[in-house]
Structure formats: structure tokens, C-alpha cells
Amino acid sequence: MHLYEVLKRPLVTEKTTYLRDLRQYAFEVDPRATKPMIKQAVEEIFKVTVISVQVINQPAKRRRHSRSRQLGKKAKQTVRHPGWKKAVVKLAANQTIELFEGV
């Protein structure tokens, strides 16, 4: 797997914004990626030193959507949203990823 296939996108949420103060950054990663692959990808792409990598597998979820039918009847439709993998990387002291700064 190529380095740029490991990291899919950065995650910018309220929680990850607070984690920036602790030098921790979150990414959505490929489900096949391992901790050493994630560490290598972040270090080579952003030119930083990674201390640790934590991986979280977000499970698939089912959501119910109402859908109108003929004669005004309503039926519920179940939609499955796929699972995904999240990685939180911690950087060495005095290092940041500029992609996240100013967001």
C-alpha cells in the first residue's frame, strides 16, 4: 500500500481541535492500515516525529429513514452506513502539522 493511500483525510472536529493542544492529530485511514504503516506515512508526508499511534475501528451503523409511499402511508427504510478506521497520532515536543493550524 502506498503512503498516500494509508491516510484518507484529516478529521477536524471539536474534539480533535482540543487534542491539537496535546500535539495529537486525528486522521481517517484505510481499514487495512497498521500502526507502523500509519506512523511511517505521517512521518514521511508531514516531516514530523510520531511518538505513538492509537487506532479506533468505528463500527458500521444502521439508520432509519422515513420514506413516503402511495396513499400517504409511511414506510421505514433501513440504510447501512459503512464502518471506518480512525487513527490518532501523537507528535514529539514542539512539532505541529501545519495542515491543522488555523482551521
Write a concise keyword list for the protein shown above.
single chain; Alpha-Beta Plaits; two-stranded antiparallel sheet; 3 helices; 42% strand; elongated
Poorly predicted segments:
none
For this structure, what is the CATH homologous superfamily? RRM (RNA recognition motif) domain
Rounded to an integer in angstroms, the radius of gyration calculated over CA atoms is 18 Å
> What is the rounded distance between the termini?
29 Å
Mean of all residue-level pLDDT scores: 88
| Beta strand % | 35-45%
The strand line-up of the biggest sheet is: 1-2-6-3
Q: Describe the biggest sheet?
A: 4 strands, antiparallel
**SSE order, as H and E?**
HEHEHEEEE
Quickly count the helices.
3
The percent of residues in helical segments reads 10-25%
Q: Determine the CATH topology.
A: Alpha-Beta Plaits
Report the CATH architecture: 2-Layer Sandwich
CATH top level class name: Alpha Beta
* Global morphology: elongated
* Category from helices, strands and their pairing: alpha+beta
How many separate domains? 1
**How many DSSP-defined strands?**
6
